[in-house]
Amino acid sequence: MTSEAPPAAPSARVADPFTTLRPRLFGIAYRMLGVRADAEDVLQDAWLRWSRTDPATLQSAEAWLVTVVTRLSIDRLRALKAEREAYVGWWLPEPLVEPLDERTPESAAELAGELSVAFLYVLERLGPEERAAFLLRQVFDYDYPDIAAQLGKSEAACRQMVHRASDRVQQARTRFEVPQGVHHQLLTRFIAAAHSGERKAIEALLSQDAMLIGDGGGKVQSFPHPLVGAFRIANLYWAQWRRMADQVVYRPVLLNGEPGLLRYLHGRLESAQAIVTDGERIVAIYAIRNPDKLTGIPLTLD
After folding, report:
1. Alpha-carbon distance 212 to 218, whole Å?
2. How far apart are the first and last CA of the chain?
């Protein structure tokens, strides 16, 4: 009598394409929507469709999954349009936060490519299909025939959308190529200056035309307009220190793949701050204060 062969060990089985591609699929959905929960909902919907599909009938599992996730993200972004338009104040994406020294291979894959808060803030100027075409081409490096198939558009239309989106993104942002070590060193100096209570020390680390944009979402107080100028921004951080002194604590983190800050007041998380630098001074600060966007971050100090 012969016994049946035991089932293959998990490591020997062929990897499920959805699992293998999940970091890329999440990257597409998050860059489209800017909110982790919305991106996860898109991936859940895509997985349900995948589970009802026979992979043997597909010419390319990756093409099929990217198409589904992209189109689901476009539909959800359209549904969110009215909500975003009625949003109180400036809308910034929900931050993806990691400890500086604890990046995993999975998170590194999810965060590969342009993902900064400043970049996603600029993408809000694009329409859903325009945003998708731009991301697929410029961030994920798909060829135009692939993008045309994923969006159900002609190749010429996709080229036009990407060209138009690229112009708008380039006009709306200034990009600096700064080594992460340099970025982190400047951040460390900024934390020290903010903790010192020396207004001039804070101001010296800011460019004269530095800008601060705050997102309170109507849930907490925030500036209705961008705060512009080194003196005004330095005065804000100095006034915070003057009122609370040692009750203000800053923690350096990786925020959307770049060095950033978490600020705690009285031991409670108050904001996640994305810092943009030219390598010498801070040129922009994006302060995410809406409590709904901070729930994925430790809310109290250890």
Report:
1. 17
2. 62
Helices 36-51 and 17-33, packing angle to 10 deg: 140
**pTM assigned to the model:** 0.88
Residues in the chain where the model's pLDDT stays below 50: 1-13
pLDDT in tens, 214-271: 999 999 988 888 999 999 999 999 998 888 878 999 999 999 988 999 999 999 999 9
pLDDT given at position 8: 44
Structural domains in the chain plus CATH codes = 15-91+124-172 (1.20.140.160), 180-293 (3.10.450.50)
Helix, strand, coil shares, percent, the chain, to 5: 50, 15, 30
Amino acid at 6: P
> Which residues, 6 or more positions from 143, have their beta carbon under 8 angstroms from its beta carbon?
none
Sheet with 227-228: strands ordered across: 97-98, 248-255, 258-265, 268-277, 282-288, 206-215, 227-228
Helical H segments across the chain, by residue range: 17-33, 36-51, 61-79, 81-85, 105-110, 117-123, 128-134, 144-151, 155-172, 180-196, 199-204, 230-244
**Helices and strands, counts by H and E, the chain:** 12, 7
Rg of the chain over all Cα atoms, to the nearest angstrom:
22
For residues 264 and 96, give the distance between their C-alpha atoms in angstroms, rounded to a whole number: 17
pLDDT of residue 64: 96
